[in-house]
Amino acid sequence: MDKTDPCLMVIFGATGDLTRRKLLPALYNLKLEGLLPDPFGVVGAARRPVGDDGFRSSQREGVERYSRQGLNSDLWDPFAGSLTYSPCSFDDPEGYRLLAEHIQRRESELGTGGNRLYYLAVPPSAFPVILKRMEEAGLNRPGQGGTWCRLVVEKPIGTDLASANELNRIVNRVFPEQDVFRIDHYLGKETVQNLMVFRFANAIFEPLWNTKYVDHVQITVAESIGVEGRGGYFEEAGITRDMVQNHMFQLLCLTAMEPPVALDGDAIRTEKVKVLQALRPLTSEDVRDHTVRAQYGEGVSGGSAVPAYREEPGVAPGSTTETYVALRLFIDNWRWSQVPFYLRAGKRLPKRLTEISLQFRDVPHHLFRQGSGGPVPNILTLRIQPDEGITLTFDAKKPGSATRIKPVSMNFAYEGSFERSTPEAYERLILDAMLGDSTLFIRRDEVEGSWAWIDRLFEGWNRDGGTAPAEYTSGTWGPGEADVLMARGGRTWKRT
Ligand code: BG6
């Protein structure tokens, strides 16, 4: 493992949920594993005047509640000593002047040498003003002697291609692209990283990974939760902007891309961009026949009655925002010509499950009886979460005098296969940002490539005033229309 340079991490939005639930628990776990740089410090910046002690105690609660490894008081205390707080209203130049002084003071107290990792744990609407004020205060300039200054930003980057371009333009005016780390936390998941290892470190799968052998691919991102108090945000985003444009398209790219020429950030991201460039643009007929948008109605989830989306706080009573989407798309290139990729994502589905399944083509000639007991196509399933692992189903002869066939499976489970527990996505991503390794972060052209396709989808949906989304009952696998979408191609959703 490369050594991380000493650095100071400056978090904007330090009193928010992301910091407490994800960032600080991740830093604490890195500390426990001896992976944080030494020296290292965190400066929290946000509007509320909580002070160093208030910041430390709320982060301690967050770690107690959300950390992968339990809180150890002996280790917490020295770690907490590296956390300080500088109150800063995002639009107030004085706050940035004080923040700059605070940073310099901490740098000389800790001896971090001038390397800085800025983390914008704030809604993207706050990016422009923060970046402008940072620039005015000179916070974006690396110090002397080869020190670095990097920026980490959270999704969503824009709400369409035009707004993403504008946001990227603002970001790149203040920080050069090589210093910008756009987070998609799905890339920090071990099982997502394993996609490349599975494909490119094994000789047996890749020869089958193409139109000659694959009938179709299904990618499912199901959640049992609803919008969890984020109704206001979700009204603007919908599941397509919240999950498909970023997380699902990343899964799609990693599944479909060509082997990169090297394991470096640019080589990998260049291959992902090529997948986005090869996505077949949707026609109006495609949007009508091969996309489904739906919204959850009331129902039962986890044994309790749950309200309809339109009754969630912050949601308009007549809202047409989609909480479920199903899509069929094609990648028009040599490898995937005519192979449909089916994507579905939804809230309030029966369970939390993310998986990628490749269903292989049928055998060329049927020796065995069809119908009951006949062969079924092979399916390779990569279970991203939970119950992480990989399963290959294939046909076997049922013991007995008649030749009856039954699908059986070979299963690999992460649990029990490795000694170490799996790090959280944010642990890996923060560490990589400190190391300056951008492989698991989104390059500007990836953001723009995925928006270009999604824009066409929304144009189709909004044509002629748009249509209301279909409805599905909470706790079910989505609307009947999604089954019809599959049936049009003579297929069904994989049973999970
Ligand atoms: C976030 C979305 O990016 O990902 C949430 O904004 C969603 O709506 C979450 O619930 C899912 O992440 P995970 O890691 O739980 O699959």
Q: What would your notes on this structure say?
A:
This protein has 496 residues and is α/β, with parallel strands linked by helices. The chain contains 13 helices and 16 strands. It has helices at residues 17-32, 51-66, 73-80, 93-110, 127-136, 161-174, 190-200, 231-256, 265-278, 284-290, 425-435, 444-462, 480-488; strands at 7-12, 40-46, 83-87, 116-120, 149-153, 180-182, 214-222, 291-301, 304-306, 324-329, 341-346, 353-360, 379-385, 389-398, 404-413, 470-474. The strands form two sheets. Strands 7, 8, 9, 10, 11, 12, 13, 14, 15 and 16 form a ten-stranded mixed beta sheet that branches. Strands 3-2-1-4-5-6 form a six-stranded parallel beta sheet. Helix 8 packs across helix 12 (444-462). The longest helix has 26 residues, at 231-256. The two termini are 38 Å apart. Bound molecules: 6-O-phosphono-beta-D-glucopyranose (BG6). 6-O-phosphono-beta-D-glucopyranose (BG6) is lined by residues 223, 242.
Task: Give the secondary structure arrangement, pairings included.
Layout: E1 7-12, H1 17-32, E2 40-46, H2 51-66, H3 73-80, E3 83-87, H4 93-110, E4 116-120, H5 127-136, E5 149-153, H6 161-174, E6 180-182, H7 190-200, E7 214-222, H8 231-256, H9 265-278, H10 284-290, E8 291-301, E9 304-306, E10 324-329, E11 341-346, E12 353-360, E13 379-385, E14 389-398, E15 404-413, H11 425-435, H12 444-462, E16 470-474, H13 480-488
Parallel strand pairs: 1-2, 1-4, 2-3, 4-5, 5-6, 7-11, 8-16
Antiparallel strand pairs: 7-12, 8-9, 8-10, 10-11, 12-13, 13-14, 14-15
Helix pairs in contact: 1-2, 1-11, 5-6, 6-12, 8-9, 8-12, 9-12
The structure holds 6-O-phosphono-beta-D-glucopyranose (BG6).
Residues 223, 242 line the site of 6-O-phosphono-beta-D-glucopyranose.
